[in-house]
Each structure stands twice: as C-alpha cells, then as structure tokens.
Design goal:
Layout lengths: L3 H15 L3 E2 L6 E9 L2 E9 L9 E4 L31 H21 L1 H7 L1 H5 L2 E6 L6 E7 L5 E6 L3 H10 L4 E10 L16 H11 L4 H9 L7 E4 L4 E7 L2 H5 L9 H8 L5 E9 L2 H6 L12 E5 L3 H11 L10 E5 L23 H10 L7 E4 L15 E4 L4 H16 L7 E7 L4 E7 L33 E2 L6 E2 L5 H18 L7 E5 L31
Helix pairs in contact: 1-2, 2-3, 11-12, 11-14
C-alpha cells in the first residue's frame, strides 16, 4: 500500500513545479520557492508545507521582505493570508489545496496595496511587535504594571488600574501578584498607524518621530510621562484601534547621572539630547478588561451588565444556566446583580449531570454555584439564598428578570400564580423566563412570561390532565419515566448531562434576546430526541380564555 504522505508530497511537488517553483534543499520541512504575478509585478515567495494533511496552513512568506510594512505581512516576511479556521483545505487533494493557498496569498498581497491603510490600522498591534502584556484599564485611574507568577515559572505581565484582576489571577495560580511599577496611560483619540521610515521604533528618537506623525500634540506629554520622574516611567498609548507601550532603557553613563553629584534634571536633559542612543522596549497590549471579555463574543447581542436577575433553581439546568448568564454579564456593571435561590444540597444523585463536582457534595447548591462563578471572574455581584424563593415573592419586584429553572412544574405553576396575583393587585412584577425539559430530556423549552395582558405559563396548559398546547412529545409517548429513589415515595427523572446543558443554552439565548429588547418568539422548543418528539415552530402564544390563572376561567383556587 502506498505511503499517503509520500503520495501527498509528490502531488504538491508536481503542482508547484508545473507552476514554476523549485524545491529548496537543506530545509527541515518541505519548502519551495517561486514567483507570482500580483498587480503586474513578480513577487518572490517561499512556500513551507509542514502538515501534509493541511490541518495547519502552509507557511508562505515573501522571499525578500524588504523594510516597507505591508498589510498582512509579518516581521520576517510571513504572509497572514487566512484566519486559521476560515480556509478549509481538502487533504485528499493536496495539489489543489496548495493552489488554493497560493491564490489566497495573491489576493492578500493585492489587497495590501489597495486597502493597506485600513487593514494595517486594524492589525496595528501585530506590526508594533512588542512584548505581550494584558490590560485591564479604566480611563482616568492610576495604572500599574503587575507581575503574576504562574505555576510554570512564567511571569504574566498585566497593566491595570485596579489590583482586582492581578490578585484574582494570582489566587488561581496559588501565587501573589507583584506591583512592579507605576505606569502612565495616555488616551489618544486617533487610530495608531504606521508612519515614518523607522518602524517599529527602536529608540526614543524614533518613537517620538512616529508619535509626532500620528498625534503631534501628544509628543511633549509623552516625553514628560517617560522622563519627568525620579526614574523613567513606562508609558502606554491607548488609541482607538490598539494600545501599545514604551519603556526606555538608558545607556549606562546616563543611568549614572541619576546618582549623587549630578543635578536632578541632568539625566533627563541628557536622555532628551541623546534620544537616538536611548533604546526602548515596546509592549503590545491585549485587552482583558471586563467589557472586552463580555462584549467580544456577543455578536449582535447585548450583555447583561447592569441588570438585576434572580435565578430560581440551581440544579442540573440552573447550574449551567447560571454560568452562562454570568459569562454574558449578569452580576456586573452599575446596579447589576445575580441572585441565586435554591433550598437544596448537592446529593450524590446529582453529580452525573450537574455543573458542580464531588468536592461540593452535601453543600448548598446555591452557595456552591455562586462560589464557582466567583472563582471564574473577579468583581461579580452574586448572592446566594438557601431558601424557597416562593416565600420571598413580595421582595422580587425590584428585579429586571426572574429566571425559573427548577424543572418542577408545580413550582413553575405556583410562581406563575403568585405573579398573576401581583398583576391583578395592580403591582408591577418582573417578567419570568421559565426553562424546563420534557420527556426525560427529549425536548427543551423556554417561555418568557411577561406577566402582563399576554399569555402566562398556565395558558400553555390550561387543563393539567391534558397535553399542553405546544406539547413537543409525539402522541402515546410518556411524558416522563420516573425511577424510584431512596426514601418514602421518592423518585427522579433520568436524563444525560447533555439535556440540561442544551436547555441552559436555549435559555441563555432567550435571555440575551430579552436584554436587547427582542424577546419574541416567547415560547421556544428545541427537540433533543428526534424519535420521541414532533416539530413545533417557535411561537408567541396568545392568551387562552380558559386559563384559570389569567383568563376567563378565573384565578386558580388554592
């Protein structure tokens, strides 16, 4: 049987040779060089194929990078021609795959001429090519450079206006955050861009020349920030598109001028006069502030920061749901809060499908879920209540949203009835997002109960002896199989861990839609076991006239 890698290599070599490339000898991987016509010019390229199955993209670089910065061309000439996941290559067609990569390179180089300015600004931090540092910055506060030792002996550097994030990270590593030095952050209302002949800058003079071309009114402030102190101070420039840093490394003779026998300003004046001899250290910043962490992945969505949310039920669904909404901003921002309610403890029965683990055994679910969320991010406003939430209904009018994820229909109906009583009494009550599983995890459903003149939860099933209006199970399929458990009359509903995770995800999506003011459809169904369920479109149900909770059927008699 032919060696598949040898066959792939022959196909790649034949394809490139036909295109005029020649194989390079003495390379540790498979490499070829050739030329491509781009915008009327011959561009020399070097192609390195390290993975013959194309799970990793071939590395394609300019043969002669030159000194002029071009969009998508990294230091050393490597061309960023596709995001890792955006170009899918066929491992069964290695010759065709290498041609696709070369065509992507040609298109990228053509764009680097016609659209260079915009694309370079978008990727400015890459071209600055400094030492990597995380940032957690708020405008107006004093900032410090922190070092956070990791367990693998690597020092994580972080610039922050608060010690919360460095100390939080250090606590997770079992180390202590070190406040290395105070720094200055200059906020520039411009895009940082590549200007001047010497880029990226290597000296203080080159850094000033670059900044003079980008933000001329900030050069003097920049110099004072770096030098007008007892010792040089690292300075960060926060533009609209990137944040970068500069630290100066004084020559030995200028350093000596900071000692006795010299005027206080002698070393500063000398550093300014000999700026071409003062080397700099560049920093490339990567945002890690709370707003960035929340908003980066919420495409077309609005984070939950600043919302007051109560989650009733921290069981199989509620645990994953709590984590999902916390990662979407619940418990953050001004007035933001996330309150967790559950009277129960985590039992061995729960472990196979719960967010929590065996280390939380026999402890209150609400407390342990809250602790878990606090361990994932700093500055979360989360409170836990080991109590029955129904006993605190009168205190819940201040929430923006109540999420009911108990998975118990009796509890959901009781909460719905109490909410309708508040509405009938003329008192404002927040909307309720109900989330549940049907038929041993065969389907997940969510319903936004707006507690107004629209449908309430009981409208979905006015007669509890009958199937609901939007029942997801097929006819003759049992709603639930309950398995006897320890204790008098005890039982539980078995389902795999995938079911509550799916239900929680469906609920998070509904909550995010509510947050952006687009809650419809209010009833959403996701079938998990296709063999036991039938399709229902997501809908916004009308109020049912026979509903005993909110319709003409009158209030529920308790």
């Amino acid at each position: 049987m032919a060696d598949p890698e040898a066959s792939a290599l022959r196909a790649i070599h034949a394809t490139l040779r036909y295109r005029g490339y020649r194989r390079l000898s003495g390379q540790t991987n498979h490499a070829w060089e050739g030329t491509e016509l781009v915008e009327g010019r011959d561009i020399g390229l070097v192609v390195h194929v390290e993975d013959l199955y194309f799970a990793r993209l071939p590395v394609i670089a300019l043969k002669e990078p030159g000194t002029t910065i071009r969009a998508h061309v990294l230091r050393g000439g490597a061309i960023c021609y596709a995001a890792d996941a955006s170009l899918v290559l066929d491992p069964s067609n290695p010759g065709g795959s290498i041609l696709r990569c070369i065509e992507q390179v040609r298109q990228t180089l053509a764009r680097s001429g016609s659209e260079a300015n915009a694309e370079i600004r978008a990727e400015f931090a890459t071209y600055w090519n400094g030492d990597s540092v995380l940032t957690d910055l708020e405008e107006g506060g004093e900032a410090y450079l922190y070092g956070v030792p990791r367990n693998d002996s690597i020092m994580l550097e972080l610039v922050a206006t608060s010690s919360d994030l460095p100390e939080f990270l250090a606590s997770r590593y079992g180390t202590s955050a070190q406040q290395i030095t105070r720094v200055r952050v200059l906020h520039l209302d411009v895009d940082l861009d590549i200007r001047g002949e010497a880029f990226p800058p290597e000296t203080l003079e080159e850094a000033c020349d670059w900044l003079r071309a980008v933000a001329p009114d900030k050069v003097d402030i920049f110099l004072r920030s770096l030098l007008d102190h007892d010792a040089p101070r690292t300075t960060f420039l926060a533009g609209r598109n990137a944040t970068v840093g500069v630290a100066v490394d004084l020559p030995p003779d200028i350093k000596r001028m900071r000692g006795p026998g010299f005027r206080d300003d002698a070393w500063r004046n000398e550093a300014r006069r000999r700026a071409s001899e003062v080397a700099i250290r560049r920093y490339t910043c990567r945002r890690c502030d709370r707003a960035y962490r929340l908003e980066r992945n919420l495409y077309m969505q609005k984070p939950l920061a600043g919302r007051r949310i109560a989650l009733i039920g921290c069981g199989a669904i509620g645990g994953y749901l709590a984590q999902g909404i916390a990662r979407s901003g619940a418990g953050t921002g001004p007035q933001g809060a996330l309150d967790l309610y559950d009277p129960d403890k985590l039992l061995p029965d729960n472990l196979g499908r719960h967010l929590l683990g065996i280390e939380d055994l026999l402890q209150a679910k609400a407390d342990r879920v809250a602790a878990r969320l606090r361990s994932e991010a700093p500055r979360l406003t989360i409170d836990s209540y080991v109590t029955d939430a129904l006993g605190r209904i009168s205190q819940m009018s201040g929430y923006d949203l109540i999420v009911e994820a108990t998975g118990e229909e009796r509890v959901a109906l009781a909460l719905n009835e109490r909410a309708q009583q508040e509405r009938r009494a003329g008192r404002i009550f927040p909307p309720i997002l109900h989330c549940w599983l049907t038929g041993n995890g065969a389907a997940a459903q969510t319903f936004l109960n707006r507690v107004d003149d629209k449908a309430c939860l009981r409208c979905l099933r006015p007669d509890l002896a009958q199937r609901g209006r939007y029942w997801p199970l097929k006819p003759k399929v049992d709603q639930e199989l309950r398995v006897p458990a320890d204790g008098c009359g005890g039982s539980y509903v078995p389902y795999a861990v995938s079911a509550p995770m799916i239900a929680a995800g469906l609920a998070v999506e509904a909550i995010l839609d509510w947050a952006k003011g687009d809650p419809r459809p209010t009833l959403r169904t996701l079938n998990i076991d296709q063999s036991r369920t039938e399709h229902h479109k997501n809908v916004s149900p009308s109020r049912h006239p026979a509903c005993p909770a909110c319709g003409d059927g009158g209030p529920l008699t308790l």
